[in-house]
Amino acid sequence: MRAERKDCFHLIEPLLPLVEKPSRYIDHEWGVCEEQAGPFHVCMVYADVYEIGQANLGIAILYNEINRLEGISCERAYLPWIDMIALLRERGIPLLSLESAAPLASFDVVGFTLAHELIMTNVLEVLDLAGIPQLGRERAEGDPIVIAGGPSAWNAEPMAAAFDAVLLGDGETSIKDACMRIRDLRASGTSRAEILRALAAIPGVYVPSLYKEVVDAGSTRWGYAVPGEPGTAPEVVYKRCEADLSATEPVAATIVPYLETVHDRLSIEVLRGCTRGCRFCQAGMTYRPVRERPLGQIVEAASRALAACGYDEVSLSSLSTTDHSQCTEMLRELSKLVDDAGIRVSLPSQRLDSFGVDMAAAASAGRRSSLTFAPEAGTQRLRDVINKNVTEEDIEHAASTAFQNGWRKIKLYYMMGLPTETDEDIIAIAETANRMLEIGREVVGRGRRSGVSISVSVAVLVPKAYTAFQWCGQLPPDEVRRRQQLLLACAPRDRAIRISCHDAHSSLVEAALSKMGRAGFGLIREAWRRGCRFDAWTSQFSYGTWVEAARAVGLDLEDIATERFDLDARLPWEHTSPAVSKGFLQREWRRACAGITTGDCTMASCEGCGVCPILGVANVIQGVRS
Amino acid sequence: MKSDLYRLRFAYPKSSRLAFLSHLELSSTIGRSIRRAGLPFAVSQGFARRMRIQFTSALPVGVSSKAEYFDLFLSDRLDAGVALERLSRTAPAALRPFEARYVEGSLPALEAWLDRSSWLLDLGPGLDGNVVDEAIAALCEQGSFTSMRGEKEKMVDVRAGYVAHGTAREDESLMLGLETLLGPNGALRPEAFIRAAFACIGHADALPRYLRCERTAQHHLDDGTLVDPFQLSSTQFVD
Lengths: 626, 239
What we know:
heterodimer; A: alpha/beta; Rossmann fold; pyruvate-formate lyase- activating enzyme; 2 domains; six-stranded mixed β-sheet; four-stranded parallel β-sheet; 35% helix; 13% strand; B: alpha+beta; Alpha-Beta Plaits; nine-stranded mixed β-sheet; two-stranded antiparallel sheet
């Protein structure tokens, strides 16, 4: 039976003096939708603490879209930090939404964002704290319909048992379609099972319970999913795609938090999608095609939202902002707008060439904290394998331009464990850092006060669904550690170069969860039962517990993460598709092995990824890209 | 101080749920409210171009207030009533300013100038005023106590911060009125003070786990006389 909807803030108010950062739980921020009359109630959940979740643009977009609907209200909920969780459990208080402080279990729909794989135990923690059955099949007629979406929904199978429906791709329209369908059917007394069948008829909506897992000779050991009964659900659910991004609102986050969030600034989504084609990048494949917003819309939105929200920083967000064909004009217009108001403009990612540095300089006015580049691989050969189309010359020019423009600190992002990687590629990372330092010292000077420094951060490749590397196994952790040691050993003994390597174990868990099918749920639930949560937090992640959980359910994490799949095998996620064709990805894999690069279709000809013809969409470029 | 700037003093409360904002959260919330109001605030020069604003001493998280102040430096003079009205529309209700007047730009920084605070603490039912007197007298005799600030232990000088106290019964609860002075080593935190006092007489458990606390007034102590932030001499006002 559905929990009663009532304001329960009085239950948590006495706990506020007892916890860290009580402002996580107080609601009442500027811009919040106070009118929550419903009568149909949706709650969007980001299963991490407020300051992480409140910065998520996906939830912010859906929050506004749903609240615009007549008769449907949308609230927010986040996972409390461990101190508050302990108090809630100790006193038998259920998890509450922010706006109405109503029990999560009293909502009609509860929606999760799957931002990454390591959030999955947190989803189970939210459901448990809310008193909502973790398994979809155990939910009663009146229980909330639990839906999910987001960047990690491209292999939703490990969490398929927990979700009643998964929304694939852009959510602006599909969330409204789904909520209205559920509202209408609930009003007419339709059963839960019938509602789920009706949801499966909405484009972009995947209903896991209508599919069964099949393991056969053509599949991996995790099998693949097919409709349980023919005709009840599509063989393949393709993502929803907003063909005309300019018809949507560019300012998603209109709530101004009290607490400093991880991206505590106004964010304008200037474009969606990226076709540079980096072969490790899941977002590059799953957000296609590229849709640029027009310059005028971006400048108008920034002006309006800065006045309405009061931020002192505006970020032009996207997967590759400096690729926007009107980037130069955009920054010029914005700098006029913010000139005398102490407002900063920031770009979340820099293109690795002189243009990228010029744009960063235009954005940051006088500020020169640090500049971040992502060469991703140490040698030209390996950069060709991963299709990171930057040359040694680009990197050196970018560094030189950055130092000439006043920057002193440069951060470099790399990955380890890329296909075909050799020791030579690892050593080249250290050499590049050293060369950049030398360039900096040549430009700025060699004195101690020059302040030139290079910081190198090296992650471990996690092969993801719908990338050219989806068939790869992850590098075994022992080999990761050997290569990390090699890198540290060959790094120059210079204090101005700092190298940090990502923890191999959390990457291993992420890789295992990225590869598994529905059997993954048993592992995640066992890990949660043993206390795993906040796995993306270094302070909370417990590899030992994950290993024990895997052993308890008869699995081996390393074995799962490092397994290679046959190029022709039917993969666990093929029934939920971003419309990038398997043939294209197979070709990309073969080209990677041969070190052949693939062009960007917004600057050259179509490479045949399949997205445009399958979805009936096209790249939308406002000017000319170069 | 640039002489061509106008210094506008605002008074505001910190009430209800927003009592749980930290000082940093409070200052950022007020800064954003000012930007939303479109007030012609001055911006500092240099790389980090920040709004020119001064706050009073930080309230402990969870402590509400009837009397907080900030001084905003404006580059253009705007009628104080208009500025107050505009900011009232863009500030959260629990921080809505209720008074604004221009003050002399050369006055000392607010945080150091407003050195006297009045507090009201709800000690809950079941306590006697005499016990409070006894506890505070014992702590004053002891002279100092240690208090945790985050993960650091801090020695607090009672004589530098404690001024006076009084108790009264309000409904069931015993209310403690406390007067404190901002010392060279910072402010006396009322809750830490009263807990230390009760610990001093071995009654640490007599106080409730959560003490409701409110700052009721702030003044400047000028040679033994309390000066209200808005009751300045005529030369210190510029309107």
